[in-house]
Design a protein that fits this description.
single chain, mainly alpha, 2 domains, 0% strand, rod-shaped, coiled coil, ATPase
Length: 176
């Protein structure tokens, strides 16, 4: 995959860059690294765009549920007001209106919960895909980077030990 090749290229740049003695820091061409990062962004999978779609879709579904709730509530109130006009059935009308409102609220709650479940499942799948991408691409990169730092530290330690050995020999020669 192109992203892995670009990450290998960054690693190669880091490995071959000249360093500053005793600091563990290296000198890299920022323009070259930024160009590779731009290429990686271009190559990233469509899941990131899907996340924006999921966000927009969630908002649309919630707004639709709210409109439906308001419409059902408005219809229920209109039916209740029409029934109230007749004095004989006023009590029944109020009971029926309350029942319709409870049903409407129950339907809206159920719709809202199912919408949340749907969005949650989409987000869960997206999160899983992002975890997969992370483990595929970035774990190797960080492992390689850690190995590089370990090698540099070991080399420095070996050099220090060698210098200490040279100092020790020089002291022994001076004592003789």
């Amino acid at each position: 995959m192109k992203v892995l090749e670009l990450l290998d290229e960054i690693e190669e740049i880091v490995d071959t860059s000249s360093g500053f003695p005793l600091t563990g820091k290296i000198l890299v061409d920022a323009e070259e690294i930024l160009e590779i990062v731009k290429e990686i962004r271009v190559e990233l999978p469509d899941e990131i765009q899907q996340a924006q779609w999921i966000k927009d879709e969630r908002q649309r579904i919630l707004e639709e549920a709210k409109r439906e709730y308001e419409s059902i509530l408005k219809d229920a109130k209109m039916q209740a007001e029409a029934l109230i006009e007749n004095d004989d059935i006023t009590v029944k009308a109020k009971l029926r209106a309350d029942e319709i409102i409870k049903i409407a609220e129950s339907n809206v709650k159920a719709l809202k919960m199912s919408t949340f479940d749907y969005i949650d499942s989409i987000l869960y799948n997206f999160q899983d895909k992002m975890d997969q991408l992370n483990s595929i691409y970035f774990h190797d990169m960080f492992t390689n980077l850690q190995n590089t730092f370990d090698k540099v530290n070991n080399t420095i330690l070996d050099n220090r030990n060698e210098i200490k050995e040279m100092v020790y020999r020089a002291q022994m020669e001076n004592e003789d």
